[in-house]
Design goal:
Structural class of chain A: alpha/beta
CATH topology of one domain in chain B: 3-methyladenine DNA Glycosylase II, Chain A, domain 3
Distance between the termini of chain B: 90 Å
Largest sheet of chain B: 2 strands, antiparallel
CATH superfamily of one domain in chain B: Electron transport complex subunit B, putative Fe-S cluster
Distance between the termini of chain A: 128 Å
Helix content of chain A: 25-40%
Shape of chain A: elongated
Mean pLDDT of chain B: 86
Bound molecules: iron/sulfur cluster
Number of strands of chain A: 17
Oligomer: heterodimer
CATH superfamily of one domain in chain A: NADH-ubiquinone oxidoreductase 51kDa subunit
Low-confidence stretches of chain A: none
Low-confidence stretches of chain B: 196-200
Strand order of the largest sheet of chain B: 1-4
Strand content of chain B: 5-15%
Radius of gyration of chain A: 33 Å
Number of helices of chain B: 7
Strand content of chain A: 15-25%
Number of helices of chain A: 14
Chain lengths: ~525, ~200
């Protein structure tokens, strides 16, 4: 057993995990239509390859990856494409984005697909293209294209693959459930990923509040042979943050602005591991996922296997939603999720939880009061930042100080807001400040380019004027030279002479006639 | 010589100081030649802060000329594309009081990008000549188009177009440009302790 290290800070909010009864997967059924956003991942939106009116089978390609950092999108069932237009998507902005609406025909007919017979003999590049073609994107949160993450192997020497089954956020039990029902799939997926990355060590990380999942994982790891190491550690929020988990398991800190790959580590979510296994072994595209539907406004909370694009209102009906009890709808967990304005939005590849709490359960936060500089937030911060300082700088929009205080290391876990006795929505300040910094950086790049282009143009114009002037001067000089060279060569004199000659000959002719 | 110096310590001190002065003078003189900065560093610093839209709304033919004017003591509040943020940054750099944007030169707007309705373009090349950053591509009597990534949204191409086929569209409309807002600071509205609030 490896040693476990401690991280700074962290909190212990009520877990509320039993509410969604981890370990059982329920079926969310087939809704009448699916709404599939073309941007369910980080990177460029997928580019469409079907048109309204097309009939598609389950598993058929709807949109392909557009460039390197992008993933394709597949039909989760058979039906007709009825619309391609901007529709509400699960995004904190509550804005619309381009979606494809698929009217299900209820027959659920699928294309034939097949995977590799034995992935152990395939080259990593072949396996990466299988994963890429299946549209796998990180299913834990951000939705980074998995194939791109795996390509870190070309740049850096890697030693360790971590499967992050921490799932430290309250309420969410999707990964917990997956670990209980498909531990073998996770372990095999992890072995495939390790094979691709060329790493020896696989760490399967499970927090100690999930004994059933831990047990299942240990059994599966044993059954599949010895290169998997199941590790468990005390429950604390947010141990599941990538950088935090790496510190817990290895004692190493990911440098500011760096990636785990810089330490030779790659982290993946259990759901992603299973999706990678499905892609490689069966050639199955990613078209469904387990979503935790939870909160006390639901009569039947639980973990549901739902097709991507299922509208949340359909899921709420399936789970027995009582609208009188509820005041808000949260995409994700209570700490890091965001509120949705409409239940018409669909679930996407990154949706791990839909939380519909009652008012008693998750009260509306009271008005923020002034910061009393109690320092509790700094004690709670898992990234060892100074949240109250960041708060002041964010308010003052002081980007320089924000960067000096490592705002970029903030994982937006919400631990600081959770402990703040003044109920200051600290994370919201950091999100805004990060957006501000990102924007001014892109604007800076833009304006630098404009300056260069402006100056280049100025220079070109100047060059052109000079060239024109030089040309004119040269012509003038040439003419003057000719004039100076003698009357015979003088164009004016020559013209006059010519005219004279003509006149003379004309008068001669008239005299002759 | 040595004995002379020993008997007149004042001389010794003077000579030493003179020597030091000459030595450092030579070093400084050399440095000022060797490490000479080209151009006017203040103008460049100011130009760094200007938005480089090159729109001329400030009354100067581009950002650099305006930067030169500011360096010579001109007002810092004439650049509408930069808006208050640029004014504040300039005030910070020049250590003067920030002012409000001079409304005479226009008001702060969301950045735009030019879009040529291509089937209406007659290929007159007038817009190319107007564009300060060479963001328009085309040739005489052929269709023209804007390289959206390079367009600064300066509006200068709109006026010369004889068939009015250039639209200015918002550059940051999409979901990918959305950012979280800073929360409203609340403590100014309500009071420090909860019971105060009920009374208010
Ligand atoms: S916990 Fe809240 S009140 Fe205390 S120092 Fe941090 S921001 Fe201020
Ligand atoms: S949200 Fe950021 S600042 Fe607050 S505790 Fe988490 S990492 Fe620290
Ligand atoms: S108004 Fe601003 S952006 Fe426009 S030219 Fe002047 S300094 Fe540049
Ligand atoms: S394309 Fe038009 S609006 Fe854009 S930079 Fe050129 S002249 Fe200005």
């Amino acid at each position: 057993m490896n040693t476990i290290f401690k991280i700074h800070g962290g909190i212990h909010p009520d877990e509320e995990k039993q509410l969604s009864n981890p370990g059982t997967v329920l079926d969310a059924g087939l809704p009448p239509s699916l709404i599939l956003p073309l941007s369910q991942h980080i990177g460029k939106p997928s580019s469409l390859c079907v048109a309204p009116g097309d009939y598609v089978l389950g598993g058929q390609l709807l949109a392909e990856a557009d460039g390197m950092v992008s993933v394709p999108l597949h039909a989760p069932t058979s039906g007709t494409v009825v619309a391609i237009e901007p529709m509400p998507v699960p995004h904190p902005s509550a804005m619309n984005n381009l979606c494809l609406e698929l009217e299900c025909d209820g027959e659920d007919r699928w294309i034939e697909y097949a995977g590799c017979e034995d992935w152990r003999v395939e080259t990593p590049d072949t396996l990466i293209s299988c994963i890429r073609a299946a549209g796998v994107a990180g299913m834990g949160g951000a939705g980074f294209p998995t194939a791109v993450k795996l390509m870190a192997r070309d740049r850096l020497p890697l030693q360790t693959l971590i499967i992050n089954g921490t799932e430290c956020e309250p309420y969410i039990t999707a990964d917990d459930t997956l670990m209980q029902v498909d531990a073998a799939g996770i372990v095999e997926g992890a072995q495939i990923l390790a094979h691709i990355l060329g790493v020896e060590e696989i760490l399967l990380a499970v927090e100690d509040n999930k004994p059933a999942a831990l047990d299942a994982m240990q059994k599966a790891a044993k059954a599949r042979g010895g290169d998997c190491n199941v590790m468990t550690f005390p429950t604390k929020y947010p141990s599941g943050g990538e950088k935090q988990l790496i510190e817990i398991l290895t004692g190493k800190q990911v440098p500011t602005g760096g990636l785990p790959a810089d330490l030779g580590i790659v982290c993946q979510n259990p759901g992603t591991a299973v999706a990678a296994r499905d892609a490689v072994c069966f050639g199955k595209p990613l078209t469904d996922r387990i979503v935790t539907l939870t909160g006390r406004a639901l009569a039947r909370p639980g973990n549901y296997r739902a097709r991507l694009g299922t509208p949340i209102e359909h899921l709420l009906t399936v789970a027995g939603f009582d609208p009188s009890q509820n005041q808000r709808l949260i995409h994700g967990g209570p700490m890091m999720g965001f509120a949705l304005e409409s239940s018409a939005v669909p679930i996407i590849k990154t949706t791990n939880c839909i939380l519909v709490p009652t008012e008693q359960e998750l009260p509306t936060p009271p008005d923020a009061q002034a910061c009393i500089r109690c320092g509790l937030c700094a004690e709670a911060c898992p990234a060892s930042l100074l949240p109250q300082q960041l708060y002041w700088y964010a308010r003052a929009k002081d980007q320089e100080q924000l960067e000096r205080h490592h705002l970029a290391d903030c994982i937006e876990c919400g631990a600081c807001s959770w402990v703040c006795p003044s109920h200051i929505p600290l994370v919201q300040y950091y999100r805004a400040a990060k957006g501000m910094i990102k924007e001014s950086k892109t604007e800076k790049i833009r304006s630098d380019r404009s300056r260069d282009r402006f100056e280049a143009r100025q220079e070109r114009l100047e060059r052109e004027t000079l060239a024109r002037e030089a040309q004119r001067a040269a012509r003038r000089a040439a003419a003057e030279q000719k004039a100076a060279a003698g009357g015979a060569d003088d164009p004016v004199a020559a013209a006059i002479a010519r005219a004279k000659a003509k006149k003379d000959s004309a008068s001669d002719e008239s005299a002759n006639s | 010589m040595l004995t002379l110096l020993q008997s007149y310590p004042l001389f010794a001190a003077l000579i030493a100081l003179l020597g030091l002065g000459l030595g450092f003078g030579a070093v400084l003189g050399y440095a000022s030649v060797r490490f000479r900065t080209e151009g006017n560093p203040l103008v460049d610093q100011i130009n760094q802060l200007l938005p480089q839209t090159q729109c001329g709304q400030c009354g100067h033919p581009g950002c650099k000329p305006y930067a030169t004017a500011i360096a010579e003591g001109g007002a810092i509040n004439k650049c509408p594309p930069g808006g208050q943020e640029t004014i504040d940054a300039l005030a910070d750099l020049l250590d003067v009081e920030p002012q409000a944007l001079d409304a005479e030169h226009g008001e702060e707007k969301e950045p735009n990008v030019a879009y040529i309705r291509e089937d209406e373009c007659i290929g007159c090349t007038k817009c190319i000549q107007a564009c300060p950053v060479d963001a328009i591509l085309g040739a005489a009597k052929l269709m023209h188009t804007v390289i959206a990534d390079e367009c600064t949204g300066c509006d200068l191409c709109v006026e010369p177009c004889p068939v009015d086929c250039i639209d200015m569209l918002p550059r940051k409309g999409g979901i990918e440009h959305w950012r979280w807002d800073l929360p409203e600071p609340n403590e100014n509205k309500s009071s420090i302790i909860a019971t105060d609030r009920a009374a208010a």
